[in-house]
Amino acid sequence: MPAKRPPIPLSRERIIEAALHIADSQGLRRLTMRRLGDALQVEAMAIYHHLPRGKDALMDALAEHVTTVHAEPGESWQDSARAWCRASRAALREHPGVLALALTKPPKGRAAIAVREQTDQLADAGLADAARAVRAMRAYVFGAVAVEVQQSGWAEPAGDDDEPWRPPSRGGGSAAADDDFELGLSALLAGLDGA
């Protein structure tokens, strides 16, 4: 008889990974502490050891996870801004199940630090009012991804309430969505350049 494998230790990272899987495959409304505990093969109360505020802390952690983006500085502020916007879009599209959290929760923790880092990069590259530019870029990226998710039909229930939601297609979207995003991004950056 083979030896029984020891359980994988519970960690904040493992909790977030499992929560993202549930939200992306079934929708955020199906993410409960009980369902999360079942996915992790632990009692739901064990999660509170890593997230003492419970579901509120979990929602904050998920929003922070998908909005903490880093991009290497480019040769110009425009290059840096493009890299940041593309990385932000990719992170949000990877986890559409928590897009609503990204749209409604202000940046906290690592996400707030990443926003400050981006602001500093743009300011150091010569962009006047970099903080305003970052707010505009975040609004553009979040809105563009929200439209993509809406158009994909991902958020449409597959049937009755007992059926899981259809997951989005992974590995990039349509060429039209990519083209639309780049067109809007170019227009935004041109506007910021002239502001």
TrEMBL record:
Which source organism does the UniProt entry give?
Answer: Streptosporangium roseum (strain ATCC 12428 / DSM 43021 / JCM 3005 / KCTC 9067 / NCIMB 10171 / NRRL 2505 / NI 9100)
Q: Which UniProt keywords apply?
A: DNA-binding, Repressor, Transcription, Transcription regulation
Q: Which PROSITE patterns match?
A: HTH_TETR_2 (PS50977)
Keyword DNA-binding among record annotations: yes
Q: Which Gene3D superfamilies match?
A: Tetracycline Repressor, domain 2
The protein's matches in SUPFAM superfamilies, at most eight in alphabetical order, are given as: Homeodomain-like (SSF46689), Tetracyclin repressor-like, C-terminal domain (SSF48498)
What biological-process terms (Gene Ontology) are attached? negative regulation of DNA-templated transcription; response to antibiotic
The protein's name = TetR family transcriptional regulator
Q: Which residues form the HTH tetR-type domain?
A: 9-69
Which residues does the annotated region (Disordered) include? 155-178
Q: Provide any one GO MF term from the record.
A: DNA-binding transcription factor activity
Pfam families with a match to the protein in the record: TetR_C_1 (PF02909), TetR_N (PF00440)
- The residue ranges marked as DNA-binding region are 32-51
